[in-house]
Amino acid sequence: MATGVAIDDACIEKFNTLKLGKTNRYIMYGLNSDHTQVIVVGEGPADTPYSGFVEALPANECRWAVLDFEFESKDAGKRNKILFICWSPDTAKVKDKMLFAGSKEAFKKKLVGVALEVQATDASEIDEQAVLERVLANAR
Length: 140
Fold this sequence. Notes:
Blueprint: E1 6-7, H1 9-21, E2 24-31, E3 37-45, H2 50-56, E4 63-73, E5 77-87, H3 94-110, E6 116-120, H4 123-126, H5 128-139
Parallel strand pairs: 1-3, 5-6
Antiparallel strand pairs: 2-3, 2-4, 4-5
């Protein structure tokens, strides 16, 4: 990675389980305590509502997440898209924001099958309706 941050193999394994096994709604990722490795820091079971995912995001810390986003499409009915969420709240430490931003692309490239990236710095950008609008606009 550009920042020298490594990726724990468990991150990719958990992503593949979400993508293929549909056993989780989301996997949340962060950095270990010495900021040298991306690790899994949380996950939500498949029946977790979107609001449960949003509640799991820390108010003052950056996170990446993959989310199995379920929505209704006018043309195709019930659909799912795997989203890569970059959560970087305004209240997070500047050093953390820089590390997360600098490591994002290399990490995202390892997650084969992500349909859309969503970057959010506050609650309005991660609101379910705002995310749905982005997903629907991307699906056209």
